[in-house]
Amino acid sequence: MSVTLFNVKITGGRVVWAAVITCVLGVAVAGAVIVVPPLLPPGPRPLFQLPVACGETWKLGTYPGHDDFDVDLFPTQGEAWGRPVLASYAGEVVAAGINGTLGARTPDNPTGPHGRGGGYWVKIDHGGKWQTQYLHMIEPPMVAKGDHVERGQQIGRVGSTGDSGAPHLHYEQRRGRQKVETWFDGHPSGITTDDHEYTLTNTSNNCPD
């Protein structure tokens, strides 16, 4: 008996079957490498902290059309413009730059034209399929794609670029591809649905170790 596999002539039934089994196992293993990782569940929730300076109290708010779990942060004291934006947890920067268009809202021209999207923004991957996003910063981020950041490291400053009506920080936590309720210092923030406008306050524990 003789069989041709991939233009190679092989003689002997046992050899042919061994080759077929080897090929099948090879495909199965390759498939496992490709299919299994996306099916792995997310890891434990990191101990995220508010993305603002230690000890500061900020208002966390949402409104209809904002999207479930999206949080807008405004300081309860002082100007929002230029306030430090801090990493909520250690991780790798996977996006940093411009999301959409910038518009022209600045401290000198706070009612200038809107932009689109998130303006200057940063996205951080914290491992275990957890990510955070920081939008509408006043200027290009202080970090770049591929950088490793520590929790509490400054990554930018609060602004009003993109589709923003006033200076604030738009913030999200994501598990896999899903936005989820933000947690800070081990506790849920309380910002869930966007079916009505509401605000809460929270004090940052994003402090040096």
UniProtKB/TrEMBL annotation:
Start and end residues of each M23ase beta-sheet core domain: 82-180
Keywords of this entry: Membrane, Transmembrane, Transmembrane helix
Transmembrane segments: 15-40
GO MF annotation: an example: metalloendopeptidase activity
Pfam family, one: Peptidase_M23
Protein name in UniProt: M23ase beta-sheet core domain-containing protein
Organism, as annotated: Virgisporangium aurantiacum
